[in-house]
Design goal:
142 residues; 2 strands
Length: 142
């Protein structure tokens, strides 16, 4: 018998807690990789297909819609999804945005924007807290 087998069989394996708190090991955060649906992957495929004879021009939403999208729109959304976070609040805001644009009602307003700058302004207005805005300003000053 190996030492790791002895440790796993003994009371030392869970320090006598019998699994207490194991429910906390589960992440409640939204993770598109867990269910096989990823807007980032779809946007990446649209961007990668630029220059192909038949480029991809649509994405599927979680609610079953297929929505037309241009490469420029995909690039603007990808920039918002992939930008570096500046604090914990910003990370939560990005996760909410990421989850929201997987539905038709969340994605359509961004696609209706004229350009990437309008999308960015919409993101700042709808998702960014004052705390995150201040953190971004302080980061840009450095």
């Amino acid at each position: 018998m190996k030492i790791k087998d002895l440790v796993n069989e003994s009371d030392f394996a869970d320090l006598g807690l019998k699994g207490l708190g194991s429910e906390l090991d589960k992440d409640d955060d939204y993770d598109p990789a867990k269910d096989g649906f990823s807007m980032v992957d779809q946007l990446g495929k649209v961007l990668d297909s630029r220059g192909n004879p038949n480029p991809l021009d649509s994405v599927k939403t979680r609610d079953g819609s297929e929505i037309k999208i241009t490469a420029d729109q995909a690039a603007s959304l990808m920039r918002l999804l992939k930008r570096e976070t500046v604090n914990g609040t910003d990370r939560q805001e990005k996760e909410k945005f990421s989850k929201d644009i997987t539905t038709k009602t969340g994605l359509t307003p961004f696609l209706d924007a004229n350009d990437g700058k309008s999308m960015q302004q919409m993101y700042v207005q709808n998702y960014m807290s004052d705390t995150t805005k201040m953190a971004l300003q302080n980061k840009s000053r450095m």
